[in-house]
Amino acid sequence: LRNLLQGLSFSIKYYSKHNHLPPVCLYSKMKQKKCHILDSSGSTSTHQTLPPGSVLPWRFFSCKDGTKIPSKRKQNKSITTSELLYKDLLKSEQENWNDISARYKVMTKRIKEKLEELHKCMFSSGTPRIRFGENVYFEENGCIFLTKTDDVDEENADILFSAEDLGFSNAFIQRIRISPDQRHMAISLKSENSEEATCVIVKLGHFPVVEKVIPSVFSFEWAANDVLYYTTLKNLRCQNVFMTTFTNQKHTTELVYTEQDARFFVDINCTKDRHFLTINSNSKTTSEVWLIDCKHPFQLPALVQARTKGLIYHIEHRNYELYILTTHGEPAEYKLMKAPVTSSGMENWQLVYALEEKTKLVDLEMFSDHCIMFLKNAGHLYLNVISFVSQSVQSIKLPTWACEFELESHPEHTTSTCYFQLTSPVHPPKRFAYSFKENNLIEQAVQEVPIITNCHTTRLLAKSKDETLVPITVFHNMNSKELHRKPLLVHVYGAYGIDLNMSFKEEKLMLIQGGWILAYCHVRGGGELGLSWHKDGCHHNKLKGLHDLKACIMLLHQLGFSQPKYTAIAAASAGGVLAGALCNTDPELIRAVVLQAPFVDVLNTMMKTHLPLTIEEQEEWGDPLADEKCMEYIKSYCPYQNIKTQCYPSVFITAYENDQRVPLSGVLQYVQKLRQAALDHASRTSKKGDRIPNIILDIQASGSHCDSSWEGSLDE
């Protein structure tokens, strides 16, 4: 791949220099196509997710209708008995899936057609933009375009980059960074089959030229016009920071920083005023930040505050002062503090603003004279606008239907308007703007979506086993009658301090239109009520999340939202721990379970220290090798360890062959053990009318840990 790009780069330079026919079509006039926007969660959280505790970078946008990066060839290894067993299990499950999926062809076809139609309606209004002065950069269908702010006819936009023209097969553009003088552009291209991305550096001009290709990149930022800092990702870990320069036709690269502690993950960000780059080294509970002065990018990084166990902090900059978002002091929730750049130690931090109790800080955006905090409190969304000039704080409650924020990119911190989108699982994104000059919130005029949702949103509180009140967000069609007879889909996650993903999904709207009830249980372990909500549901408190989930489902049934025989539960990744545990402890509460890349074998995974995330994850789950009490506690709730002979709900699991986070082998063993327990129970009881649950595993050859293309997610 590198040789190909270097060859293309040489060709472009050579032909441009000698005025021959232009080679690859990197710069031309083209009518652009429309695409949809990737989730940002990753998370995940999708969601695409940054590691918990990391500073949010500039907002990036993506398109799945791109091209894929070929995965690396697997090295030949000697075949062991366990590998043969794994291959046999894999083959058996694939054959089983082929037999079962054939039964649903008619239903699948009908649902796919409806979702495709909804998708066309929802995403017909284009993609977000990056504004630099009079220039606007945007991405669609694997191409990056340039237009002018005053040019209303985007069909005249110029193409700066095309992933397809460069031979990147089935990759999508994940992130874009423009150099301060707009002469260089750095782009990350990511395949759905791997979590590693490739960074392509393009020299902009009359004929854009690919200058460098850097493999396995996670984050990157321009420190100066021709100086790029970046981190590399290897086995899901970021430890090294590099600096590369593009001067006088010479490309030099130097190692700048190395993280020695396996619990810490390193990324690069840029302060909003572009005065500093920050090297952020974060574990799940502790932070350390180093500063690079963008006016002196070759100087050694300067430490802000040495890592202190339990202290999380992130850095912004304004008027020669550092603005520090930190957990320093009591209570251990986020506060905004400040300190002089020259005296940045913790002893000099001064409080600017402290969050209210049980408030979640979703995001923070700095501007020249203001700061906007995006907050969640009791299920509602708020903006807190802090004026550094008047020393005042204004709180603005956002529409009650809104469940998620999505910020747009604001590269120029002097702008007078902050743009963002609001969405919910059943409400397509709506664009809003907050004007600092007018001091008001404006809903942007957009093309109306030709669909009437007619959806009612209810917020409830369930009393858990220890009397803690747990929030639930419920959606249902306002025209639905006899709700106790309607099917209910319960969503849960409850880990890493990450909120449930409540951004818009076409399939959620389709379910509401079909009479379903959707419930989102914001259990402990997640982050919906702040850092303490996460702390109260991790490590030796994991069972609290399970008790919360049970209390939520029981309250829904008591209030007449469906009943057990019409109730299903959906969870992804670490959400599989609570969903799988509930199947063991209270299978009578639910009829079906849908799991995506589920983490169901906590104990065995946390005992395998050779896996890339085990050491890093100990702050979330504990260390069973070093602590016998921890081992017994994990055993008490681990889904795989507690499978028993009983009547289980039907279970549908999607897993990915290329998943580096949740190994497929563990999912295969879980499915085999669960299916055997269900069959044993059926053979012992064998009463007339007893049902045997379906235990179905769909193994995706493409995709990697809940990160599949639109077509892949549509099939699923």
Automatic annotation (TrEMBL):
<comment type="function">
    <text>Serine peptidase whose precise substrate specificity remains unclear. Does not cleave peptides after a arginine or lysine residue. Regulates trans-Golgi network morphology and sorting by regulating the membrane binding of the AP-1 complex. May play a role in the regulation of synaptic vesicle exocytosis.</text>
</comment>
<feature type="domain" description="Peptidase S9 prolyl oligopeptidase catalytic">
    <location>
        <begin position="503"/>
        <end position="679"/>
    </location>
</feature>
<dbReference type="GO" id="GO:0005829">
    <property type="term" value="C:cytosol"/>
</dbReference>
<dbReference type="GO" id="GO:0005856">
    <property type="term" value="C:cytoskeleton"/>
</dbReference>
<protein>
    <recommendedName>
        <fullName>Prolyl endopeptidase</fullName>
        <ecNumber>3.4.21.-</ecNumber>
    </recommendedName>
</protein>
<keyword id="KW-0963">Cytoplasm</keyword>
<dbReference type="InterPro" id="IPR051543">
    <property type="entry name" value="Serine_Peptidase_S9A"/>
</dbReference>
<dbReference type="InterPro" id="IPR002470">
    <property type="entry name" value="Peptidase_S9A"/>
</dbReference>
<feature type="domain" description="Peptidase S9A N-terminal">
    <location>
        <begin position="156"/>
        <end position="440"/>
    </location>
</feature>
<dbReference type="Pfam" id="PF00326">
    <property type="entry name" value="Peptidase_S9"/>
</dbReference>
<dbReference type="InterPro" id="IPR001375">
    <property type="entry name" value="Peptidase_S9_cat"/>
</dbReference>
<comment type="similarity">
    <text>Belongs to the peptidase S9A family.</text>
</comment>
<keyword id="KW-0378">Hydrolase</keyword>
<dbReference type="InterPro" id="IPR023302">
    <property type="entry name" value="Pept_S9A_N"/>
</dbReference>
<dbReference type="Pfam" id="PF02897">
    <property type="entry name" value="Peptidase_S9_N"/>
</dbReference>
<dbReference type="GO" id="GO:0005794">
    <property type="term" value="C:Golgi apparatus"/>
</dbReference>
<dbReference type="GO" id="GO:0006508">
    <property type="term" value="P:proteolysis"/>
</dbReference>
<keyword id="KW-0720">Serine protease</keyword>
<dbReference type="GO" id="GO:0004252">
    <property type="term" value="F:serine-type endopeptidase activity"/>
</dbReference>
<dbReference type="InterPro" id="IPR029058">
    <property type="entry name" value="AB_hydrolase_fold"/>
</dbReference>
<keyword id="KW-0645">Protease</keyword>
